[in-house]
């Protein structure tokens, strides 16, 4: 890979006529991160108001998403 982050492509692919505008929608990485975020935030609801905790939870969600994308790639090769 040439320094690009693998995002898994579109989470909810659109028909070619809809995608022609250049808006491909949410990536699979974003979808995975959102799912991880729900779990992480649920476990830290008391601390969620802290900016530092919120940033850490968001970073953790994307780390989980990246691991999911990497694991998913193993299954398709």
Describe what you observe in this structure:
This protein is mainly α and 77 residues long. It has a domain of 51 residues. Helix 2 crosses helix 3. The model has no long low-confidence stretch (mean pLDDT 78).
Write the layout of secondary structure elements.
Layout: H1 16-19, H2 28-43, H3 51-76
Helix pairs in contact: 2-3
How is the biggest beta sheet arranged?
Answer: none
Average pLDDT, all residues: 78
Number of E-type strands = 0
Cα shape: globular
In short:
60% of the residues lie in helices and 0% in strands. The chain is mostly helical and 77 residues long.
Distinctive features:
77 residues, mainly alpha, 3 helices, 0% strand
């Amino acid at each position: 890979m040439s320094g690009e982050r693998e995002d898994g492509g579109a989470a909810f692919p659109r028909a070619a006529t809809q995608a022609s505008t250049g808006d491909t929608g949410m990536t699979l990485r974003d979808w995975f991160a959102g799912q991880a975020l729900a779990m992480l935030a649920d476990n830290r609801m008391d601390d969620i108001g802290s900016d530092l905790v919120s940033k850490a939870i968001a970073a953790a969600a994307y780390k989980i998403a990246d691991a999911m994308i990497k694991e998913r790639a193993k299954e398709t090769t």
